[in-house]
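Journal club prep — side note

Before the paper discussion, L.F. wants everyone to see what a predicted structure for a comparable chain looks like in token form. Sequence:
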Amino acid sequence: MLVPILFLGIEYNNKLAFSTGPEEVLYHSDKNTYSIQQIVHQEIFSEDKYAYILFLTEDKKPEDSIVLAEFKKTITGWELEGMVLNSLKGLQTVRDGKNRTLFGLAPSDVETVKLGERSAQLFSIGENKKKIWIIYKPSKKELDSLPTFYNKEGQKLS
């Protein structure tokens, strides 16, 4: 009698994790081996059945690394598909393994990041106001481009 109840409890927890949104899956998935210090941004693209969460994780000190967690919507709910970890020290442009997402670190005085003509989403992180930029579904041209940074006056930064 105890074994079936234990099995139902485990099955309920698995179902709960996959039936809720990506954030709940991130917190409950055995695939996530990183501590979550701060969620920077999350977005769901319903038409593509895709979602991502950017979060800070602690390596040796707070705000040391950032993780891009990617999720896929299946018939059973959201599943953690993959994770890309990068150090915030010297972070350049990073792409996920399937070229769906580009992201990188921007100087604190940047107000706009562009790849070609397209503007990236920009998020401040941490107390020192570092910024992370991200572009979803970059074109081939954008994949081959370097980001251009602009200050609040619209002047290009070197």
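L.F.'s comment for the group: Residues 6-10 have pLDDT under 50 and may be disordered. Keep this in mind when we get to the figures.
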